[in-house]
Amino acid sequence: MRHCTLFQFRLSDNQSIGPAALRKLWARASGSRDVSVQREVRDAGFGKRVPVYLLCGPPQLIQVHAVEDRLRELLSGSGLIAIFSSVRLS
To answer: Which domain of life is it from (predicted)?
Structure first.
């Protein structure tokens, strides 16, 4: 199935999460095993580059707000401080 980016975030300085752990967390938050994750390094300005984590899944994922709440709770419960940025859903 075709995936689209549903959420993106970066972590606080000196924090990271591996792809397997992130995919497991994302699958739990979304309630679906049909998910994928990506990590990109982006320019944050002033010569600083930061990793950005992308959480992808089916475009018709239901209850996106509830999924986001669970996602934030699971990240926080793992000791991770996530800074979310918006993703335009089309």
So the answer is: Bacteria
User: Following CA atoms 85, 4, 37, 27 in sequence, which dihedral angle do they give, to the nearest 10 degrees?
Assistant: 100
Bridging pattern class, strands 36-45 and 82-85: unpaired
- Calpha distance 70→30 (Å, rounded): 8
What's the Cα-to-Cα distance from 20 to each of 41, 48, 63, 84, 88, rounded to whole Å?
18, 26, 24, 20, 25
The string of pLDDT tens digits covering residues 18-73 is 999 999 999 999 999 999 999 999 998 899 999 999 999 998 888 889 999 999 99
What distance in Å separates the CA atoms of residue 35 and residue 73, rounded to the nearest whole number? Answer: 18
| C-beta of residue 39 within 8 angstroms of C-beta of residue 54 | yes
Domains of the chain: 4-85 (3.30.70)
